[in-house]
Amino acid sequence: MQAQKELESRTIPFWKRIFPYISYLLEGKQADHKQNTIAALDGVRAIACLIVVAFHLSLITTRDVPLWTASQFNPLFSAVAFAGDTGVNLFFVLSGFLLFMPFASAILWRKPRPSWKRFYLRRIFRILPAYYVSLLLMILLFRPNYLSIHHWQGLLSFLFLFIDSSADAYKQINGPFWTLAVEWQFYLALPFIALGIAFLVERCSQRSSNPRIRLGWIIGSLLVLAAWGVFSRWLGIYLVANPQLATTRLTSWLINLFLFFGFGAPVAGLHGKFMEDFAMGMLVSTLYIYTQSKSGKGESQYPITLASWLGRLSPVLFVFALLWQLAMFAWKFAQSTPQAFPFFTQSVFTPANYATYAELGYGIGYGLLILAILFGRSWLKRPFEWTPLRWLGLLSYGLYMWHLNLVRLPTSFVARHPEWPALLRYSVYWGWFAIFIIPLVFLLFVAVERPFIQFGARLTKATKKQAAPHQEEPPATMSSTVTVEDTHSPGLSEPGPAHIH
What is the DSSP string of 240-264? Predict the structure, then answer.
């Protein structure tokens, strides 16, 4: 019997034998069909990561090694090829969705608020260890001169994750880091935002237990939050363009304070804290929690009805979201190539309006896309639940941080072979990404990310035992497959030279 088992194991292909082990390292012991999981969102996160990589490859292969030009192809194809940086918006929407879930549940159903201590501990041990290890390695490998005393202000911005608010740190060492700072600042602010929404809902709904009324007030609050995101971006752009407004020491101090915390460093390409994207994710999260939870007997029919309606509408929402994003991509491409899409250079489609409203447009499109996937039938979810794609989603934090510095390395090799077909030279980059960058990031996950995720889980479990028996604690793990509360959305792309998009 033992000999037969050994013979059977030898006949099984190596990749089939290694898959369970990889699954264990990435997902732990309870890898498949876990309770409170949204597996499809791991696939969505992987796609967001891949389109960010594709965007950077588009920049490299048109600027560093000119393999193709946008004018060679249909304008819509070129628009999509240079729109991958909007994967950052998709990541922000995912962050808003996943991290707001326990807060939305508490506000909707009048439950005790989630533990702030556990929330912050989870964020710290999920994000900071891998970030600091990566930061140190990148400085040593790529920018050792950054250890000079002359860069102390930039180093402080990196250490405290205010990279986006520092001209000395913005797009230095590793371009994508600045958007990680935007994510981190949202994590710090989210419990306070949720507390403000809860207070507003309680006061405006007159402490009503009717979830429909509370749902309406939450949605209204999130629309105000999205409006603040748009307004703060417009105000920041206006203040940067009009420095003469700082006429006194007080006004100069107030303007700089707002720019630091509410807008970012006054440098080209950076504008706003993307609160409208986070708000769109939080809105979708609220709708999802409302349809998944049970209230009283008299109210339970309404969430079920809404879920059924969204389920029937999901294919239409999915197609509409894709068309919406294609239109946004065309508007983006028209900023640099007006002749490609003349319609998007007229009327309200001005560069100023693009700078102010484009992030909201991307947030709406990706929010609708997530909504369609969440409520879609199995045929719509299945592609996003494909295991290899989900695994990439689980590795997306490390892939996001490392891909730009590493994907550039084959450039000199590609440049030395101009006789090769352009498609072959372009494929070298993706081959490098598959055989070198992904395994390297996998090692980072196993050696750094996973141990600290587990340590944070043990630490917060001990914190939960010390909490009051009646206090509701939010679920907490890193990935959407692992839980709904603790997914990091690393999808932060390095912006283009003049704009984030």
Answer: HH-GGG--SHHHHHHHHHHIIIII-
Tell me the Cα Rg of the chain: 23
Q: Which pair of tokens denotes residue 351?
A: 């560069």
Q: How many Cβ atoms are within 10 Å of 61's Cβ, its own excluded?
A: 20
Q: DSSP letter string over 272-318?
A: ---HHHHHHHHHHHHHHHHHHS---TTTTHHHHHHHHHHHHHHHHHH
Residue 37 · residue 480 · CB < 8 Å: yes
- Say if CB 174 and CB 138 are below 8 A apart: yes
d(CA 499, CA 501): 5
403-442 pLDDT tens trace: 999 999 999 999 999 999 999 999 999 999 999 999 999 9
Among candidate residues 425, 373, 432, the one with its CA nearest the CA of residue 404: 432
Those residues whose C-beta lies under 8 Å from the C-beta of residue 80, and which sit 6 or more positions away, are: 326, 329
Kindly give, in sequence order, each residue whose CB lies less than 8 Å from that of residue 206, ignoring residues fewer than 6 positions away.
none
User: What is the number of other CB atoms lying within 10 angstroms of the CB of residue 118?
Assistant: 22
Quote the tokens at residue 85: 């940086």
Instruction: Provide the sign of the torsion angle of the four alpha carbons 70, 74, 79, 84, taken in this order.
Output: negative
Residues 6+ apart with CB under 8 A from 79: 326, 329, 330, 332, 333, 340, 341
Q: How confident is the model at residue 10 (pLDDT cuts 50, 70, 90)?
A: low
Element housing 207 (H / E): none
301, pLDDT greater than 80 = no
Q: CB burial class (10 A; 0-12, 13-18, 19+) of residue 485?
A: buried
> pLDDT tens digits for 163-205?
888 877 888 888 889 889 999 999 999 999 999 999 999 988 8
Rounded to whole angstroms, how far apart are CA atoms 243 and 235? Answer: 12
Instruction: Tell me the DSSP string of 348-382.
Output: T--HHHHHHHHHHHHHHHHHHHHHHHHHS-HHHHG
Q: Work out the number of other CB atoms within 10 angstroms of the CB of residue 228.
A: 15
Spatial distance between the Cα atoms of 109 and 229, rounded to a whole number of angstroms? 27
- C-beta of residue 237 within 8 angstroms of C-beta of residue 281: no
Residue 473 has pLDDT above 50, yes or no: no
Of 452, 468, 490, the residue nearest 122 (C-alpha):
452
Phi-psi category of residue 436: left, alpha or beta, with phi > 0 → left and psi -120 to 50 → alpha? alpha
